[in-house]
Specification:
- With 321 residues, the protein is of the alpha+beta class.
- Helix content is 30%, strand content 21%.
- It is built from 5 helices and 12 strands.
- It is rod-shaped, with a radius of gyration of 52 Å.
Length: 321
């Protein structure tokens, strides 16, 4: 009886096995591995044929057919001076499917942000707006203008390094400088305005003292009946003002009349508890009238002054308490 020669797949030990052990499970005496004795006369199994794709997909991976030598090639679509020595890769001739060799487009890289330049420009704009608010606005405009110049200067140096934000930094510097330069101009403008008003009032007072009937001034309304009266017995000419406190309610229009009994110039000023003027009457005449709407209920300081050359006694009418 002939025997077959087989090798253990685990330890490669050669074994002689009888023919009737072909296709059966045996155990290697060396490594104790169990394996099946193959048939030496069996034919190798051929791999299964590839699946048939639909007609729509057959041209996807099908290589292009060889060109017919009898048909002349079409002219190239590229300039001959650039592509005459280069051959296009075969994927350029594929009529279907995406280009597997195409490079993805480069991603857009936004420029680096220059936060200091933006902060400087923002502070400069705020300072420039605050210039037009008298007194408190000027102080804030000075602070914001200095900060805007500082941040814009640092942002300009950063822009040279990161290549971004140079225009914003220059705009911040310009606006911040305008905010600082606008403060003295605003002070000069308001000073000239107050000076012109003072000169006009002095001129009207001099004209009124010379001839009380020479000025065409608006006549204040006469006080209605039922108002509260306060007598001011003696108001010296160009002397100390007379001061009193009157309470007014929030949202109700406050009204005050001054009726003088001599042809002189009487002025009146109303101030709130913070010393701010809420209403004034500086017209060069002997009668005065002021009115305003209080923002909250409080006691107002009323200052009556005789700016003329004659002493007088006055009567004050009001609708407060």
């Amino acid at each position: 009886m002939s025997s077959n020669f087989a090798h253990c797949p685990a330890c490669q030990m050669g074994l002689q096995v009888p023919p009737h052990f072909v296709g059966k499970l045996v155990q290697c005496p060396k490594c104790q591995n169990s394996w099946t004795i193959p048939d030496p006369n069996a034919r190798p199994v051929s791999p299964p044929p590839p699946p048939v794709l639909p007609a729509a997909f057959q041209t996807w991976n099908t290589p292009p057919a060889a060109p017919d030598p009898r048909i002349p090639a079409p002219p190239s679509a590229y300039p001959p001076d650039r592509w005459q020595h280069a051959e296009l890769p075969p994927h350029h001739h594929q009529p279907y499917g995406p280009d597997p060799f195409a490079q993805p487009p480069p991603y857009y890289q936004p420029p680096a942000a220059n936060g200091l330049a933006v902060a400087g420009m923002t502070l400069g704009v705020i300072g420039f707006v605050l210039v037009f608010i008298p007194f408190c606005g000027w102080i804030l405009a000075l602070i914001f203008g200095l900060l805007g110049i500082t941040f814009s200067a640092i942002g300009l140096g950063t822009a040279a390094r990161i290549q971004s934000g140079k225009g914003v930094a220059l705009t911040g510097l310009l606006v911040s400088m305008l905010a600082l330069l606008g403060i003295p101009f605003q002070i000069y403008y308001l000073g000239q305005k107050f000076e012109n008003q003072r000169k006009a009032n002095d001129q009207n007072r001099r004209a009124f003292n010379q001839n009380p009937n020479a000025l065409d001034l608006p006549i204040p309304p006469r006080p209605p009946l039922g108002l509260k009266e306060i007598a001011i017995p003696n108001l010296a000419a160009r002397g100390a003002p007379h001061t009193l406190q009157i309470q007014f309610k929030q949202g109700v229009e406050a009204k005050i009349w001054i009726v003088a009994h001599s042809a002189t110039d009487v002025d009146i000023v109303a101030e709130d508890d913070k010393g701010m003027h809420v209403a004034t009457d500086f017209h060069p005449r002997h009668d005065c009238y002021i009115s305003w709407i209080p923002m909250r209920s409080q006691s107002y300081r009323i200052v009556v002054t005789n700016a003329g050359n004659l002493p007088t006694r006055c009567t004050l009418y009001h609708n407060g308490s």
